[in-house]
């Protein structure tokens, strides 16, 4: 099919071919998904783009869902482009959950087309506009809402509501799982607040490669600096790195952090720049920003990911 489309439409880009594949697939009988409540369908076939969303769907859906996660550990969603295999996976799903707010920007067209034939839910839309952060320069919405656990609770509630609406027969189970998960999220939110508060106020400064932690900053009272913008598609310039180095030197910041889904080049440049000015700065550890840890590890869950970040930041900045 892909080869024939190339012959028929040689000018189409790779993304355009994927969109045409979606449209063709949507018209075929195989693409028509029946609700999970119909006879013969034991679970809902769900696709989630990023690990944080997949984890919530699994937790709330329990035995009633089968979840496929498109982007694995260490994958940068800002730069991710849907493959032909991804389109097939998406078309086979009965429900699709994605972040939205321009996080999966390179998948937007594909998700929009598929959304014409089945539930495709942008969970980021559950965060009220007044609680979304907007960059001061480009006026772009910051998509990293999972860094504020209280906002992620809204996402969890949205996912629970959507599952219950799609599969009313198991709505009570989804509600029970949601209530238990919300209790865990509220405990995690309080844990983050209590732990960050143990860092001396003058050392409560988080320096990373790209701006993924502004929601974390607002929620838990810690300043953040990063030379790269909210999307890793943007380049960090020499002046951005120089300005970050000056902040580290002037504020006497003891440690900075790498991110699991971002190459360490920028952080290495910052460390070298600080050393050139006589300031020794250590790497405080690796934080999870746009992707969770490996499956089967504590960091491979949303709660474990946030707890790891909090503990790593506190250990490096509080000197514990």
Question: What would you say about this model in short?
Answer:
By secondary structure, this protein is of the alpha/beta class.
Give a written overview of the molecule.
With 320 residues, this protein is of the alpha/beta class. The protein has two domains: 13-190, Nitrogenase molybdenum iron protein domain (Rossmann fold, 3-Layer(aba) Sandwich), CATH 3.40.50.1980; 198-317, Rossmann fold. Helix content is 44%, strand content 11%. The protein contains eleven helices and eight strands. It has helices at 2-8, 14-26, 51-61, 84-92, 108-114, 149-166, 171-196, 214-220, 238-251, 265-276, 302-317, and strands spanning 44-48, 65-69, 95-98, 120-122, 205-207, 223-225, 255-259, 282-287. It has a four-stranded parallel β-sheet, sandwiched between helices. Strands 5-6 form a two-stranded parallel ribbon. Strands 7-8 form a two-stranded parallel sheet. Helix 8 (214-220) links the parallel strand 5 (205-207) and strand 6 (223-225). Helix 2 (14-26) runs parallel beside helix 4. The protein starts with a helix and ends with a helix.
Order of helices and strands: HHEHEHEHEHHEHEHEHEH
Look at the helices and sheets and give the structural class: alpha/beta
CATH topology title of the largest domain: Rossmann fold
Q: Count of DSSP helices?
A: 11
| Shape descriptor | globular
Strand count:
8
Largest sheet: 4 strands, parallel
Classify the helix fraction into a percent range: 40-55%
Mean pLDDT: 84
Q: What CATH architecture of the largest domain would you give?
A: 3-Layer(aba) Sandwich
């Amino acid at each position: 099919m892909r080869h024939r489309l190339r012959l028929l439409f040689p000018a189409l880009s790779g993304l355009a071919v994927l969109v045409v594949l979606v449209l063709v697939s949507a018209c075929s009988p195989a693409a028509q998904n029946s609700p999970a409540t119909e006879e013969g369908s034991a679970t809902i076939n769900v696709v989630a783009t990023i690990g944080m969303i997949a984890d919530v769907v699994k937790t709330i859906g329990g035995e009633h869902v089968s979840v496929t996660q498109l982007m694995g550990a260490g994958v940068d969603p800002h730069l991710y482009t849907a493959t032909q295999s991804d389109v097939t996976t998406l078309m086979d799903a009965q429900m699709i959950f994605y972040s939205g707010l321009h996080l999966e920007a390179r998948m937007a067209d594909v998700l929009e087309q598929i959304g014409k034939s089945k539930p495709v839910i942008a969970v980021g839309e559950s965060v009220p506009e007044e609680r979304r952060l907007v960059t001061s320069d480009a006026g772009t919405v910051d998509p990293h809402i999972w860094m504020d656990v209280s906002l992620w609770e809204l996402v969890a509630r949205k996912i629970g509501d959507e599952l219950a609406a799609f599969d009313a027969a198991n709505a009570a189970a989804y509600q029970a799982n949601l209530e238990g998960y919300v209790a865990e999220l509220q405990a995690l939110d309080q844990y983050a607040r209590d732990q960050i508060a143990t860092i001396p106020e003058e050392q409560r400064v988080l320096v990373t490669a790209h701006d993924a932690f502004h929601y974390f900053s607002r929620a838990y009272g810690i300043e953040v600096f990063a030379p790269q913008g909210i999307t890793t598609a943007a380049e960090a310039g020499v002046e951005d790195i120089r300005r970050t180095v000056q902040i580290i030197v002037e504020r006497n910041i003891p440690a900075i952090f790498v991110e699991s889904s971002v190459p360490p080049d920028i952080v290495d440049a910052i460390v070298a720049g600080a050393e050139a000015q006589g300031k020794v700065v250590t790497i405080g550890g690796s934080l999870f920003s746009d992707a969770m840890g490996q499956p089967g590890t504590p960091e491979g869950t949303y709660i474990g990911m946030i707890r790891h970040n909090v503990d790593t930041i506190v250990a490096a900045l509080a000197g514990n």
